[in-house]
Amino acid sequence: MFELLLVIAIVGILAAVFLNRVLWYQERAEKAAMEQVAAVVQSALNLQVAKLAVEGRLAEAGLLTSENPMNWLAQRPSNYRGEFFDPDDGKVAAGGWYYDLKSHELVYLVELAEHFQPQEQGGRRVRYRVKIVYNKDGRDIGGVVVEPVGSYGWFAG
Q1: Residue ranges of E strands in 56-104
Q2: Helices then strands (H, E): number in the chain?
Q3: What pLDDT does residue 45 have?
Q4: What are phi and psi of 150, to 5 degrees?
Q5: Phi-psi category of residue 45: left, alpha or beta, with phi > 0 → left and psi -120 to 50 → alpha
Q6: Within 10 Å of residue 69's Cβ, how many Cβ atoms?
Q7: For residues 135 and 93, what is the distance between their CA atoms, to the nearest angstrom?
Q8: Phi-psi region at 147: left, alpha or beta (left = phi > 0; alpha = psi -120 to 50)
Q9: What is the pairing mode between strands 96-100 and 80-84?
Q10: Residues 154, 115: contact at Cβ < 8 Å?
Q11: 71: which DSSP letter?
């Protein structure tokens, strides 16, 4: 009987360690997927600016800061929830993207947040905004970026 209890205890400990690792890897995968979508949106933004440049309308690049970046993609991510005007926490499901019409920000709602340190007032959100970068003289466009609004940490330290 003692040996059976010992085997059950060992199996229980191994199962707990295994499940902890599985959750850790799932959270890492969520972070990687979020960063991959942000990189795809950055590429789509670069294509939009290139299109404006080819058409001789580069001066209109500033208008891109108020557009929904998901509209630039040929195929939106399956976890894109749509456009909302300053939604409440319970209105949009975690683990997905939405576009905030009020702030003109692309927002990702973190689902697995054991190792996530949020933005100052962002809760479990990572917010991205399109930003125009100007050359040193301040007149010519030097580039465009999709960058996080504020700072957050995910698996930091």
Answers
A1: 80-84, 96-100
A2: 1, 7
A3: 94
A4: 80, -175
A5: alpha
A6: 25
A7: 40
A8: beta
A9: parallel
A10: yes
A11: G
How far is it, in rounded angstroms, from Cα 144 to Cα 49?
8
What are the pLDDT digits (tens) for 125-141?
A: 999 999 988 888 777 78
Is beta strand 153-154 parallel, antiparallel or unpaired with respect to 116-117?
antiparallel
Rg (CA), the chain: 21
Amino acid found at 149: V
Assigned token pair, 136: 């040193």
| Token representation of residue 93 | 């499901």
Tokens of 43: 């590429």
| 87-107 residue pLDDT tens | 876 788 899 999 999 999 999
Q: How many residues does the chain have?
A: 157
> By the 8 A CB rule, do 61 and 144 touch?
yes
pLDDT above 60 (res 59):
yes
Cα-based angle 107, 111, 113 (whole degrees, multiple of 5): 105
For the record, the structure tokens of 115 come out as 């190792």
The candidate with the shortest Cα–Cα distance to 111, out of 147, 79, 78, is: 79
